[in-house]
């Protein structure tokens, strides 16, 4: 992955601002003998905030900015003047970013996620400003000589993970034709070559179908047997599939056993996250431009049961419109 601009995992250390102290000031003016307390409140410390930005598609901007410190609030002053609030740190992140807080024992807990443009998630709140001494004036204590200190700052380590937002995710072994399909049905231009692991980062494309409908398709890097254990590209990109509404399994027509390959792919997803079984699934048999009708009919008996399937060729355009219709219908479910 050296040299890639696609970063979907970063760890940052963040610290919010300390609240400003309240003032213990007394009014001092000519001809005012007993001015009384007039100390202002301290300002709030700055927050650490994640904000969704549709113009971002990677977390690379945080790769070299792993320390995020917000400003402290200013202290209060006389004449009941409140201190200035500390400046918030607003971190723009791509849609689909999940934040997890790293605990002292090394485990993580879910902190939230950002899925909409402009949506904000406060990771750490700034400390509240302290109250000035005029708040503490009572009938029995007309001149309080104390004020409230500001609330302490918060700090913590967070893991930010990007899960690509797409309607349809392409699932298959390396070199199954996923990138070629995406390049044919959308304007995306993923790298295509005749060797495994050509795709090293997810690619997104907008697919247009009948009646001016459209949906987003994601080309996920190829899965191999044992991916859930870290083999091949491991679980690095399996998390992107969690966001997809429909999974399109792609197996080439020259496979030795289509049913077995489908079972292996499904097994890898299941062992990574059993909830993936709840998603709509379709099967596309790719690279079928050299097959005749008789051979296709014979192959249909060797397909896995219970999953809608279609024979396609991205090169010749065979059944591509039908595939789009099937995907759109699956998305409506």
From TrEMBL:
<feature type="binding site">
    <location>
        <begin position="219"/>
        <end position="222"/>
    </location>
    <ligand>
        <name>GTP</name>
    </ligand>
</feature>
<dbReference type="InterPro" id="IPR014100">
    <property type="entry name" value="GTP-bd_Obg/CgtA"/>
</dbReference>
<dbReference type="GO" id="GO:0003924">
    <property type="term" value="F:GTPase activity"/>
</dbReference>
<dbReference type="GO" id="GO:0000287">
    <property type="term" value="F:magnesium ion binding"/>
</dbReference>
<keyword id="KW-0547">Nucleotide-binding</keyword>
<keyword id="KW-0963">Cytoplasm</keyword>
<dbReference type="Pfam" id="PF01018">
    <property type="entry name" value="GTP1_OBG"/>
</dbReference>
<keyword id="KW-0460">Magnesium</keyword>
<feature type="binding site">
    <location>
        <begin position="313"/>
        <end position="315"/>
    </location>
    <ligand>
        <name>GTP</name>
    </ligand>
</feature>
<dbReference type="InterPro" id="IPR027417">
    <property type="entry name" value="P-loop_NTPase"/>
</dbReference>
<dbReference type="InterPro" id="IPR006073">
    <property type="entry name" value="GTP-bd"/>
</dbReference>
<feature type="binding site">
    <location>
        <begin position="172"/>
        <end position="179"/>
    </location>
    <ligand>
        <name>GTP</name>
    </ligand>
</feature>
<dbReference type="InterPro" id="IPR031167">
    <property type="entry name" value="G_OBG"/>
</dbReference>
<keyword id="KW-0378">Hydrolase</keyword>
<feature type="binding site">
    <location>
        <position position="199"/>
    </location>
    <ligand>
        <name>Mg(2+)</name>
    </ligand>
</feature>
<dbReference type="Pfam" id="PF01926">
    <property type="entry name" value="MMR_HSR1"/>
</dbReference>
<dbReference type="InterPro" id="IPR006169">
    <property type="entry name" value="GTP1_OBG_dom"/>
</dbReference>
<comment type="similarity">
    <text>Belongs to the TRAFAC class OBG-HflX-like GTPase superfamily. OBG GTPase family.</text>
</comment>
<dbReference type="InterPro" id="IPR036726">
    <property type="entry name" value="GTP1_OBG_dom_sf"/>
</dbReference>
<feature type="binding site">
    <location>
        <begin position="286"/>
        <end position="289"/>
    </location>
    <ligand>
        <name>GTP</name>
    </ligand>
</feature>
<keyword id="KW-0479">Metal-binding</keyword>
<dbReference type="GO" id="GO:0043022">
    <property type="term" value="F:ribosome binding"/>
</dbReference>
<feature type="domain" description="Obg">
    <location>
        <begin position="4"/>
        <end position="165"/>
    </location>
</feature>
<feature type="binding site">
    <location>
        <begin position="197"/>
        <end position="201"/>
    </location>
    <ligand>
        <name>GTP</name>
    </ligand>
</feature>
<feature type="domain" description="OBG-type G">
    <location>
        <begin position="166"/>
        <end position="332"/>
    </location>
</feature>
<keyword id="KW-0342">GTP-binding</keyword>
<feature type="binding site">
    <location>
        <position position="179"/>
    </location>
    <ligand>
        <name>Mg(2+)</name>
    </ligand>
</feature>
<dbReference type="GO" id="GO:0005525">
    <property type="term" value="F:GTP binding"/>
</dbReference>
<dbReference type="InterPro" id="IPR045086">
    <property type="entry name" value="OBG_GTPase"/>
</dbReference>
<comment type="function">
    <text>An essential GTPase which binds GTP, GDP and possibly (p)ppGpp with moderate affinity, with high nucleotide exchange rates and a fairly low GTP hydrolysis rate. Plays a role in control of the cell cycle, stress response, ribosome biogenesis and in those bacteria that undergo differentiation, in morphogenesis control.</text>
</comment>
<protein>
    <recommendedName>
        <fullName>GTPase Obg</fullName>
        <ecNumber>3.6.5.-</ecNumber>
    </recommendedName>
</protein>
<dbReference type="GO" id="GO:0005737">
    <property type="term" value="C:cytoplasm"/>
</dbReference>
<comment type="subunit">
    <text>Monomer.</text>
</comment>
<dbReference type="InterPro" id="IPR006074">
    <property type="entry name" value="GTP1-OBG_CS"/>
</dbReference>
<dbReference type="GO" id="GO:0042254">
    <property type="term" value="P:ribosome biogenesis"/>
</dbReference>
